């Protein structure tokens, strides 16, 4: 499917709406789409891809189908075992402290995890640490003011998290999986973009709406509007070489 396009957005949206009843179809489609996005930047064949927080392993499996050496690092044993068996080579590990040496990965991948960590900047720094100079970091997250920011209790999160969770319980008869401040955090696009652009160890390849059907990059450039209309922010970063990082350091101008 062409990206971006209305057809692609509708297909992914329909899959998303059926995520609870048919998660395998939903995540298989999402994994295929993410791999296509990565392939436009770097061929996956023979690359070492680290999938951080990849849940049931759909992304890892898609990367392997394309010839990559991919390994899944997931802290939740329930997610790893949700399909009965985890992908070979899976590691139970926290994204804050990956059991990997510096600069080992060609690509570090994290899909829809950043909104579930209390310290997204430390998490992002760890993804960058394990990526080699010249390698890519793929990060996407659902921003809080998106219509999907409250996850299963969206869009009622606009009326407050407690009210939204109470409504979900009344409607479904079961408590919501996500609780604000516990396993879901209010992350915003503007501050995230400023923090990424201020880093000396990465350059920004693209910042765009992951699912928006047109003007996917333009919508992220409009303050205010982007917090609602982006839906889900996709960042692709490139790890700078030490030389490139030094060239961009403010200390260089001072010393000169």
UniProtKB/TrEMBL annotation:
- On the tree of life, the source organism's domain of life is Bacteria
Alphabetical list of InterPro entries matching this protein: Methyltransf_11, SAM-dependent_MTases_sf
- Report the Gene3D superfamilies cross-referenced here: Vaccinia Virus protein VP39
Annotated coiled-coil segments of the chain: none
Q: Which residues form the Methyltransferase type domain?
A: 50-139
Q: What's a Gene Ontology MF term here?
A: methyltransferase activity
GO biological process: one example: methylation
Annotated CDD domains: AdoMet_MTases
Short name of any one Pfam family annotated for the protein: Methyltransf_11
Keywords, in A-Z order: Methyltransferase, Transferase
Protein name, please?
Class I SAM-dependent methyltransferase
Source organism per entry reads Streptomyces maoxianensis
């Amino acid at each position: 499917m062409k990206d971006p396009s209305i057809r692609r957005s509708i297909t992914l949206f329909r899959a998303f709406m059926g995520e609870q009843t048919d998660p395998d179809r939903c995540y298989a489609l999402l994994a295929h789409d993410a791999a296509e996005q990565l392939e436009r930047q770097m061929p996956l064949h023979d690359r070492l891809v680290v999938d951080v927080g990849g849940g049931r392993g759909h992304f890892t499996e898609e990367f392997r189908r394309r010839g990559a050496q991919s390994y899944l690092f997931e802290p939740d044993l329930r997610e790893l075992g949700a399909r009965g068996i985890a992908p070979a080579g899976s590691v139970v590990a926290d994204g804050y402290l990956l059991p990997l040496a510096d600069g080992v990965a060609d690509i570090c991948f994290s899909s829809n995890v950043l909104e579930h960590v209390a310290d997204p900047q430390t998490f992002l720094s760890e993804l960058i640490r394990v990526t080699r100079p010249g390698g890519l970091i793929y990060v996407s997250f659902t921003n809080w003011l998106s219509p999907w920011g409250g996850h299963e209790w969206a869009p009622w999160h606009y009326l407050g998290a407690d009210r939204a969770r109470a409504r979900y319980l009344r409607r479904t008869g079961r408590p919501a999986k996500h609780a604000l401040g516990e396993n879901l955090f209010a992350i915003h696009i503007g501050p995230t973009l400023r923090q990424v652009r201020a880093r000396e160890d990465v350059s920004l390849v693209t910042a765009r709406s992951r699912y928006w059907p047109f003007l996917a990059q333009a919508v992220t450039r409009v303050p205010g509007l982007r917090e609602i209309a982006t839906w889900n922010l996709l960042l692709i970063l490139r790890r700078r070489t030490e030389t490139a990082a030094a060239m961009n350091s403010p200390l260089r101008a001072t010393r000169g």
